[in-house]
Specification:
alpha/beta, Diaminopimelate Epimerase, Chain A, domain 1, four-stranded mixed beta sheet, 5 helices, globular
């Protein structure tokens, strides 16, 4: 599954995560599956918990989920984040990424989504001097 993105593209996505997280106490992860047989938001919610994203100190993590073959995208935010983001924020960011994906630009779409989620996190959860990276910036990959 890792072959979906070249090593350079994976590095680009990880750098986008690190850059976004440098401005906030929030955490961002990306997970890519080949297929998703259920609603992508339900799948993303399951993965959010499996990846331990509900255990961050400020409960302000976001998971960007992509199922390539089934053309499904979802973003899940933890409880503190969901309380402050504007209505339709997650849907708008999914639409931004989908516009890139339709042109075959998977990594650019992910980076654009990460940047926008990071900006929103920075508004409500700015970084502090004691901030540590609680979650890996590596992309997780699921089924082939």
């Amino acid at each position: 599954m890792k072959h979906v993105l070249t090593p350079a593209e994976q590095a680009s996505v990880q750098q986008a995560i690190a850059k976004a997280e440098s401005q906030t106490t929030g955490e961002i992860r990306v997970h890519i599956d080949r297929k998703c047989a259920i609603d992508p938001l339900d799948q993303a919610t399951k993965l959010f918990i499996q990846l331990g994203m509900d255990k961050t100190e400020f409960r302000n993590a976001a998971l960007i989920y992509l199922a390539l073959d089934d053309h499904k995208v979802a973003i899940v935010g933890d409880e503190a984040l969901n309380k402050v983001v504007p209505p339709h924020f997650w849907e708008d960011e999914c639409a931004l990424m989908i516009a890139h994906f339709k042109n075959g630009n998977i990594s650019q779409g992910l980076c654009a989504g990460i940047a926008e989620v990071g900006k929103e996190l920075a508004v409500y959860f700015p970084s502090n001097e004691n901030e540590e990276n609680e979650l890996s910036n590596e992309i997780s990959f699921g089924n082939d």
